[in-house]
Amino acid sequence: MKKNVYRLGTILLLTLVFLYFFFRKVEWKEVLNNLVDIDFKFFILLILLVPLHFVTRSIRWDFLLKHEKRGIKFYNRFAANAVGFTVTFLFPGRLGEVAKPFYLAQKEKVSRGFTLGTIVVERIFDLFTMCCLLGLFMLSRLFFPAYFRAPEEAYSNLQMWGIIGSALAFLLLVVSFSLYFFRERTLSVLSFLLRPFPEKVSQSIIKASLSFIQGLKFFHSVGDLLAYIMLSFVVWIGIIFFYWIFFLAYNLSVPFYILFPYVFFTMVGASIPTPGMVGGFHYFSKLGLTSFFNIGTNLAVGMTIVVHAVQLMVTCLIGYVILWKEGISLFQLRKIGEDVK
Questions:
Q1: Which pTM was predicted?
Q2: S-S: 333 plus which of 40, 99, 195, 251, CB 3.0-4.6 Å?
Q3: Which residues are CB-contacts of 334 (< 8 A; sequence separation ≥ 6)?
Q4: Segment 3-12, tens digit of pLDDT
C-alpha cells in the first residue's frame, strides 16, 4: 500500500513540475485564441489520422507474434493497440504497455510472457528508429545548412538527447540479444538469485521469464528482422505525417523532414509515466516547437493542448467502443497492469 502511495506521489509531483514549466510565462487570452484558430479541413483530417499508427503497429506486430502463433487476427492486434493506448492515456505509470499484450494474450490464447516480450522489442525498435531518423536529420544539416535556422543551442540539445536515446536503444538491444541467445546461462543466473525465495515463487518467475525470452525469438530470423526494421520506419513516418498535417492545420508549412526533432521530443515526453502523458508530453512538445520553429510560447502551448486533446479523445473513444463491445471493464485492464507491476 505504502509503495503505491509513494509511486503515485512521485508521478503526481513529476506531472506538476512539467506542467509548471509548460504553463510558465503564458498569456491565457492568447492561448485560448490559438485553441480555435485552426484550419477546419486539416483539423478533420487530423482526427481521421489518429488511428493510423494503430494500423501500422498492428501490421508490424504480426512479425513478432507469428513465431508463437500464426494467423492472429488483424482486428485483435488493432484492438489491443487501441486498448493499450487508452489505458496509458487514462492511468499513470504507462499501464497500457502491460494491458496491450495481456489483452491480446487473452483474446488469442497465447502466453502472456511471450506477448510481453514482444512489447519490449517494439519499444526498443521505436527508440532505435527515431534515433536513426534523428541521425539522418543531423547529417542533412551538414549538406543543406540554409534550411536549418534554429539556434545552435537547440541543435546541441538535440544531439545530446539523440546520443542518450541511441545509447539506451543499443543497451536494450544488447540485453535482449543476450537474453535470447544465452538463455540457459541467463536462466541459471536467475535461478541462483531466486534461491532465497519459496520454490513456488521462484518457479513461477522462471516460467514467466522463459515465456518472456520466447517473445524475443524473432531475432533468429534475419528476414523477419529486416522486415520489422522496415516496418518500424513505416510506423514512424506515419506518425511524422500526422504531425505534419497538424502543422498545416495551423497554417505552418514546413518541410517534412524538419519535423523529425519535434516528433523525437514528443516521443521522449510521452515516455514519461505521467497520467495520460500530461506534463511530459506537453513540456517536450512546447520545447520542440519553440526551439526549432521559432514559434511563440502562447502558440506553442495552444498547439500542444490541441494535438494532445485530439489524440486522447479519439484514442479513448476507439478504446471504449472496443471494450464495450467485448464486455471488458477498463478497470479490469488497469488491475492487470498494477498486479504485474
A1: 0.85
A2: 99
A3: 87, 91, 95, 99
A4: 566 667 777 8
Query: Which cell goes with 135?
Result: 541521425
The length of the chain is 341
All three cell numbers of 115, joined, read 506477448
Across the range 255-281, mean pLDDT stands at: 87
pLDDT value, residue 321: 92
Q: What 3-state DSSP class applies to 98?
A: helix
The C-alpha atoms of residue 207 and residue 111 are separated, in whole angstroms, by 11
Q: In this structure, what are the phi and psi dihedrals at residue 178, rounded to the nearest 5 degrees? A: -65, -40
> What is the Cα–Cα distance from 234 to 236, expressed in whole angstroms?
6
- Map grid coordinates 514512424 to a residue: 236
User: DSSP assignment of 209-273, as one string?
Assistant: HHHHHHTTGGGG-HHHHHHHHHHHHHHHHHHHHHHHHHHHHTT----GGGGHHHHHHHHHHHTS-
Contact in structure between 97 and 196 (CB atoms under 8 Å): no
* Set of cell numbers at residue 190: 536467475
DSSP state of 66: T
Give, for 331, the enclosing helix (H) or strand (E): helix 330-340
Query: Considering only CA atoms, which of 272, 284, 269 is closest in space to residue 21?
Result: 284
Q: How far apart are CA 341 and CA 336, in angstroms?
A: 9
